[in-house]
């Protein structure tokens, strides 16, 4: 059961509650680092000597496992372990996977790759369970909150809905910008809307209707220019009141969301010196962690827009971050 966030509850020495926060970053230096969120201390480093940059990270809902998309494979690590060796590894994609996410009940992991496929991996056996042929290079994939569908976006500017029961693509949304690649997608935790961001810094928003409403399943409601440069990530907050967008312009922008899906720029988070690649909200939507090419990850307090902690230690671009600070009953 969800019981809020623990990331912002500590000052000085971390409490037991603070230590329940799992914060992980990945870098082009081939290292995965675990951090004590409030103290900023690196508590564990997984140093990978073999080739392959870390492209994306995900933490299982129960905080036991970390999935890392690394050079054609998905590696699974024990969060509480001490070994740099993975507990298991998937069969390979033919090209780099850039998206990975756990099923909400931790039964399987989904990955999307530059090879144009979306794959589901059974965590109990580490075997491939299902493959979807997307065609174009997959930039992002997410599990719909109803757990019955996947939604992906790709280099051809197309968003697809994949039905897990039917084992097929059931809907294609072609971006109004045509074949401009869609870099990132985010589905609201309550299933109310979908936000997509493209390579030209533009965001598109669709309302997701119930199948019985008589309206189109995805109904376009608005679009806006979030950044004037390449957009790398768009992310809806758990309470669906905020949208974070990350960009090559070195900034992170925080947008408030109105009742009719109006998006208003609330804050511009400045401090990173190079591209901002990834972001993760705290469970209570009060904090945001970001990862940047300047080698650094930052923890932002969104009420003030200030950096409250900086995570130093990577030697090359820090390109992905994963956070799980949900308190479970």
Automatic annotation (TrEMBL):
The keyword Nucleus does not apply. It holds the Pfam family WD40. PROSITE patterns: WD_REPEATS_1, WD_REPEATS_2, WD_REPEATS_REGION. WD repeats lie at residues 90-131, 224-257, 269-310. One of its GO terms (cellular component) is TORC2 complex. Keywords: Repeat, WD repeat. SUPFAM superfamilies: WD40 repeat-like (SSF50978). The keyword Repeat applies. GO terms for biological process: regulation of actin cytoskeleton organization; TOR signaling. InterPro entries: MLST8, WD40/YVTN_repeat-like_dom_sf, WD40_PAC1, WD40_repeat_CS, WD40_repeat_dom_sf, WD40_rpt. Belongs to the WD repeat LST8 family. This is Target of rapamycin complex subunit LST8.
């Amino acid at each position: 059961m969800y019981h809020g966030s623990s990331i912002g509850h500590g000052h000085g020495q971390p409490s037991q509650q603070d230590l329940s926060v799992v914060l992980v970053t990945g870098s082009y230096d081939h290292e995965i680092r675990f951090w004590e969120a409030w103290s900023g201390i690196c508590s564990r480093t997984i140093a990978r000597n073999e080739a392959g940059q870390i492209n994306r990270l995900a933490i299982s809902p129960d905080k036991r496992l970390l999935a890392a998309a690394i050079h054609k494979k998905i590696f699974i690590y024990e969060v509480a372990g001490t070994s740099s060796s993975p507990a298991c590894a998937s069969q390979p994609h033919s090209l780099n996977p850039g998206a990975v996410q756990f099923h909400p009940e931790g039964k399987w992991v989904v990955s999307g790759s530059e090879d144009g496929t979306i794959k589901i991996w059974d965590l109990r056996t580490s075997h491939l369970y299902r493959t979807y042929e997307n065609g174009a290079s997959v930039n992002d994939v997410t599990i719909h909150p109803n757990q019955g569908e996947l939604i992906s976006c790709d280099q051809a500017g197309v968003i697809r809905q994949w039905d897990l029961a039917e084992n097929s693509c059931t809907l294609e949304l072609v971006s109004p910008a045509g074949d401009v690649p869609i870099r990132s997608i985010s589905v609201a935790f309550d299933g109310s809307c979908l936000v997509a961001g493209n390579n030209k810094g533009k965001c598109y928003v669709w309302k997701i209707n119930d199948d019985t409403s008589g309206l189109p399943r995805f109904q376009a409601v608005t679009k806006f220019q979030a950044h004037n440069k390449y957009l790398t990530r768009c992310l809806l907050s758990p309470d669906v009141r905020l949208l974070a967008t990350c960009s090559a312009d070195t900034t992170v922008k925080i947008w408030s969301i109105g009742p009719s899906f109006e998006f208003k720029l609330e804050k511009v988070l400045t401090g990173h010196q190079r591209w901002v690649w990834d972001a993760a909200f705290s469970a209570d939507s009060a904090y945001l962690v970001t990862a940047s090419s300047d080698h650094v990850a930052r923890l932002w307090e969104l009420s003030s827009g200030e950096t409250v902690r900086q995570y130093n230690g990577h030697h090359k671009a820090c390109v992905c971050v994963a956070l799980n600070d949900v308190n479970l009953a």
